[in-house]
Automatic annotation (TrEMBL), chain A:
Organism: Pseudoalteromonas holothuriae
Protein name: Uncharacterized protein
Higher taxonomy: Bacteria, Pseudomonadati, Pseudomonadota, Gammaproteobacteria, Alteromonadales
From TrEMBL, chain B:
Top-level taxonomic group: Bacteria
Protein name from the UniProt record: Penicillin-binding protein activator LpoB
InterPro entries xref list: LpoB
Gene3D superfamilies for the chain: ABC-type transport auxiliary lipoprotein component (3.40.50.10610)
């Protein structure tokens, strides 16, 4: 075969690879996702999109139930929402036992071919939504109110069981983490190779202060003051011991939990000495007048940031005896910038360790290129890689896909509670699902890229062996085309797992304050960075124990013109 | 090296065989006895409800208040089942449990029970309708209801202890019977159930 024909084929191969990389840069939804449709208030189309993209029995069955549950919750169809949430919890419970056959299949195909099992932080959100649904049902059906309130508390007890287990596994927020397990030790050695060391410190999801706080509110509402006391106390300790700092929440939140604790201790009775000591220590905590009752307003804001796909091209550098990963950025300017930032933040050779390594292996150009490449030197393993055929299998490069998270964009500056035309108090951020999602993605990133690397190498190698077994000579035209076709198959199956519960809020704000008993007109004023103010008013019947109002405010990212506020729960 | 090659060749067949086997799994339904316990998890189930109801009512009727009532009043005591609050961590069909309690009381033949408020209101509406529409011979009079002598109420509590794949769930049912004239607690019963669930982290 002449050299010119070889060059033409090579050029063709490179072009096909590039086309494939761009074509595969897809999120699960070709158009708007259900969350984006919900943001625009298009519930019918959002429901259609869910039923069209997810099936009840497929790999995304958990998402089918979660997304539909969110939609029904926003539509105030609380019973149906709870049915889907119960199904979701049953599925999560069944995922405890991992299928070995599916693990093997995932290793040969990709994570998107496996069943989506959700994240640990979904469970508290499911129980919270279920409890709010039961509370709303209690309001709408007064004859069955007691059993619905009991059902809401059952959700809180199940949540407590889950969080106790999570705390046992992670150590919670009681003490400084000292993980001396073998895996942890290995990770400590490997971490500098894949991610900067300080980026992954203290970002584990260890416990949930907001879930404990809301649990306290619901127990207080049902006058179960002892259970409420325990929950407020846990919330206060967790906020104080690191939750506030980890999720960038205001420092006064733990004091708000303390105020709740003091209130229920007073209601329960028998804590006079403790109350006196606590009040002496925290003199700034305002005590309610006896004529006033308590109100909790919860404002969910926006939707959590979307997981997207970042493509990398894996090639072998024969001179430096190293594998080299280069990001192939696609999409609009904002997406391309986010992809590059994610790569340089987590994977690129930007640490001193990596820079020295690049300098030792190659020329000075590699040091400068560090921000756009990831180099994995094989050293003495290079010869083994050649013998195994890895280097030859990577002749046309191989596609590796990992997830990245779009930057968190909150157009809301502050939210306020107004009563009878006067500013009453401010809604403060009590939880940031955005940061939780981001930290979860960061935590998994180095493991994800390692897994993707191993998977794509295995696939490339298997394909090469298959061609050899089939007797295809790899240095002629047919051989190159055959090798190209196997690369195509591998590239198509190499998709990152961008599946997520998209309709979760981005942030949860809360205000707890007191008002006179009786009907009250309450307004939430949400201030946007553009200067626009969204107002949402509700009539609330304030009763003696605790009254609750729950809303979800959506602001579209591109234009702050389109906003939607759904009051999901206004109850006594 | 040769062994490794054989192993590598064998892996795809093993994977295919596993996948084929898992693909053969299909839905199967069979009819079984309603009294037979099918424990798929450590959750409260129908058998728990039935066993607890029978044990507690048997204990309740073995206390001296039944004979005392017969001696003093000359008739079987009438019981009203009030609320049984579910304070456990599981969604328990309390209505089913209450029905099991009622059946156990009626089956004993030692006590009667009267309908709760919701049912009573429905029956009163029916009687009102009879006054207007039923013949005189078949009408049921208002004001002839039997009042309850005792009120039965209680709670279901639970706690969970778990580590790894092992989970112990403990249920405790507390019931009490109150004399409606004197507010005396004539009986207090307790029944405990403990369940151990073990799950494997991996399976086919």
């Amino acid at each position: 075969m002449s050299a010119s024909i070889k060059k033409v084929i090579l050029l063709f191969v490179v072009l096909v690879q590039l086309c494939l990389l761009s074509a595969c840069n897809l999120t699960p939804f070709q158009q708007l996702s259900p969350a984006q449709l919900v943001q625009q208030g298009n519930f019918v189309k959002a429901k259609q999109t869910i039923t069209n993209n997810y099936s009840k029995s497929g790999n995304e069955r958990l998402l089918y139930h979660l997304e539909l549950a969110s939609l029904f919750h926003l539509e105030k169809n609380f019973a149906q929402s709870n049915q889907h949430l119960s199904d979701a919890l049953t599925l999560i419970d069944s995922f405890y036992t991992q299928s070995i056959s599916q693990l093997v299949m995932t290793q040969f195909s990709g994570p998107t071919y496996a069943t989506f099992k959700g994240e640990a932080y979904y469970v508290p959100q499911i129980h919270i939504m279920k409890a709010l649904n039961f509370s709303a049902l209690a309001k709408s059906q007064p004859t069955k109110a007691d059993s619905y309130f009991d059902a809401a508390l059952i959700e809180m007890r199940q949540l407590d069981v889950f969080l106790a287990q999570l705390k046992d596994e992670t150590g919670g927020y009681n003490s400084v983490q000292t993980d001396d397990s073998l895996t942890a030790k290995i990770n400590r050695v490997l971490t500098p190779v894949f991610t900067p060391t300080d980026l992954l410190n203290n970002i584990d999801y260890k416990d949930d202060a907001f879930a404990h706080f809301l649990s306290g509110v619901l127990f207080e509402q049902s006058a179960e003051f002892d259970s409420a006391r325990l929950q407020y106390q846990r919330a206060m300790q967790i906020y104080e011991n690191g939750f506030e700092q980890q999720y960038k929440l205001p420092a006064e939140i733990s004091n708000k939990a303390l105020a709740g604790l003091l209130r229920v201790m007073q209601h329960a009775g028998g804590y006079e000495t403790e109350l006196l000591a606590l009040r002496k220590k925290h003199q700034d905590i305002v005590q309610n007048s006896n004529n006033l009752a308590n109100v909790t307003v919860i404002q969910n804001i926006g939707i959590a940031p979307q997981r997207k796909q970042l493509n990398l091209l894996l090639k072998a550098d024969t001179q430096a005896k190293a594998l080299v990963m280069t990001p192939i950025v696609f999409g609009n300017t904002k997406e391309r910038r986010a992809q590059m930032r994610w790569f340089s933040m987590l994977h690129a050779d930007t640490s001193l360790f990596d820079m020295i390594q690049n300098y030792m292996l190659g020329d000075i150009g590699d040091v400068a290129m560090g921000v756009v490449t990831k180099r994995i030197p094989l050293g003495p393993l290079w010869d083994d890689a050649v013998k195994l055929g890895i280097i030859d299998a990577l002749e046309f490069g191989s596609r590796i896909s990992v997830t990245y998270l779009e930057p968190i964009d909150t157009p809301i500056t502050k939210s306020e509670i107004w009563v009878a035309g006067k500013r009453h108090t401010q809604l403060l951020p009590y939880h940031s699902i955005s940061l939780l999602t981001l930290q979860d993605a960061l935590k998994k990133s180095h493991n994800e890229i390692q897994m993707a690397l191993v998977r794509e190498l295995s696939k490339a190698l298997s394909a090469k062996k298959l061609l050899k077994e089939a007797g295809v000579k790899q240095d002629n035209l047919l051989g190159r085309l055959a090798k190209l076709s196997t690369s195509v198959v591998n590239a198509v199956t190499a998709s990152a797992d961008t599946r997520q519960w998209q309709t979760l809020p981005s942030e949860i704000r809360l205000a707890q304050f007191s008002l006179p008993i009786g009907e009250q007109q309450i307004t939430i004023k949400t201030y946007l960075s553009s200067g626009r103010i969204i107002e949402h008013s509700e009539k609330l019947m304030v009763n003696k124990n605790m009254s609750l109002w729950h809303t979800h405010t959506f602001v579209t990212k591109n234009s702050e013109q389109a906003t939607l506020t759904k009051s999901t729960l206004n109850m006594e | 090296m040769k062994n490794n090659r054989t192993l590598i060749k064998f892996v795809p067949f093993a994977v295919l065989a596993t996948l084929s086997l898992s693909a053969c799994k299909s839905t199967k339904v069979e009819r079984i006895d309603a009294n037979q316990e099918v424990a798929l998890s450590d959750k409260w189930n129908g058998k728990d409800s039935q066993l607890v109801a029978e044990a507690m009512i048997s204990d309740m009727l073995s206390f001296p208040w039944v004979n005392d009532h017969l001696k003093n009043e000359g008739s079987r005591p009438a019981i009203i089942v009030q609320t049984v609050r579910n304070k456990s961590h599981q969604h328990i069909a309390v209505d089913t449990f209450l029905n099991d309690l009622k059946r156990a009381i009626l089956r004993s033949g030692q006590a009667d029970f009267v309908a709760n408020q919701e049912i009573r209101n429905e029956i009163r509406e029916e009687r009102k309708d009879q006054e207007l529409n039923a013949s005189l011979e078949t009408q049921n009079e208002m004001g002839q209801e039997q009042g309850a002598d005792y009120a039965l109420s209680g709670t279901i509590n639970s706690f969970v202890d778990q580590q790894g794949g092992k989970r112990v769930t403990f249920y405790q049912v507390d019931l009490r019977l109150i004399d409606m004239t004197s507010n005396r607690e004539v009986w207090n019963g307790q029944k405990k159930i403990q369940k151990l669930q073990e799950r494997s982290g991996y399976g086919f």
